[in-house]
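Hi team,

Filling in the usual template for the complex we talked about on Friday. All components are listed, including any nucleic acid strands or ligand strings, so the model treats them as one assembly.

SUBMITTER: L.P.
PURPOSE: interface mapping
COMPONENTS: two
RESIDUES: 228
SEQUENCES:
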Amino acid sequence: EIVLTQSPGTLSLSPGERATLSCRASQSFVSTFLAWYQQKPGQAPRLLMSGASNRATGVPDRFTGGGSGTDFTLHINRLEPEDVAVYFCQQYWSSPYTFGQGTRLEIK
Amino acid sequence: EVQLVQSGAEVKKPGESLKISCKASGYTFTSYWIGWVRQMPGKGLEWMGIIYPRDSDTKYSPSFQGQVTISVDTSISTAYLQWSSLKASAPAMYFCVRSGSGWGEPFDIWGQGTMVTVSS
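RESULT (copied from the run log):
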């Protein structure tokens, strides 16, 4: 089973700043199979990014993703209050599909 | 509009059985994998398993293998998650999710979630 470890656990930034979220895998896999999800308070998660860097429909270009092998990153530029959420990474390279434990993003 | 609509919250006693549902609409149900994800309160997401409605090919996470059963009724475009004998546990939210038409695709559509509480 591939274990995904996200850091930091909580990120507290001001509007307009840039957030950097990390997702590290216990073993290497193809970046095509890495997704990011955003879960706002009281809502179901929604797909943000697939293939490590491909934004899902309707996702603003302030969100960018990248990485390869075991290290993946989600950047959120020009933070807005609406970005408050928990962000999860997920690998769908091998079964069982696994998620990271999440990074909580707070806006000051 | 592509959507997954789940059945309502459930409160059950240990030992009881339960089957929750997820009705799909807006796409060809038999052409996409559909799965289930658990979220305990304030916790992360756990992938439980997934099924391909066209042939009922099903894959389970080892953590949930033997604990739950995933099934579909293609005549009504509905997926199910069932327990034969519930165990006492903290409340959990269960989300159904749509994956792609092939193996190894992300979850692009999520249901609204079904809260399950098991308590004596």
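MY TAKE: Chain A has a mean pLDDT of 96. The beta strands of chain A are 4-7, 10-13, 19-29, 34-39, 46-50, 54-55, 63-76, 85-91, 98-99, 103-107.

Thanks, L.
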